[in-house]
């Protein structure tokens, strides 16, 4: 069977128009336009006048997913900013207090009563500072503190005042170590 010859029409054909358009769909077949904004990640669907909106199930799913991802992204960035701000504030405070503590250790006020007591302090052995166990973070520091406490306990047990009156000696030791409360 021979091929049928195509009849030629005068002027431009409608198919040529479709080839040169961005989307190869006839204008009268378009029921909705998807407009994408540059300033936001969302897409708006605007119906053409006189046409009913019919969005495919896949398109609805895609739009819902993109909206959900956008919400998650904004929530995540807000949370990260708050966390960063909180960490910066804590680090700045710790750094300021460390510098202040170093400065206090270097400053020594010379008064008449202080100079007399400083002579006595130089003859005495420096007492180790007791650090609360909840302030110690590393395992190494905890182990060191435990060893110091064991040595301190052995010294207390060997002391003559403890052998004579243990309760009052312990009470006095606690007052000296932790201060008057």
Give me the strand/helix succession: HEEHHHHH
Helix content: 55-70%
Strand order of the largest sheet: 1-2
Oligomeric state of the chains present here: single chain
Distance between the ends: 114 Å
Estimated radius of gyration: 42 Å
Average residue-wise pLDDT: 73
The chain-level structural class is: mainly alpha
Tally of alpha and pi helices: 6
Q: How much strand content do the residues show?
A: 5-15%
Low-confidence stretches: none
Q: Would you report the number of β strands? A: 2
Task: Give the overall shape.
Answer: rod-shaped
Descriptive tags:
nucleus, 6 helices, Slx9-like, single chain, Ribosome biogenesis protein SLX9, 181 residues, mainly alpha, 2 strands
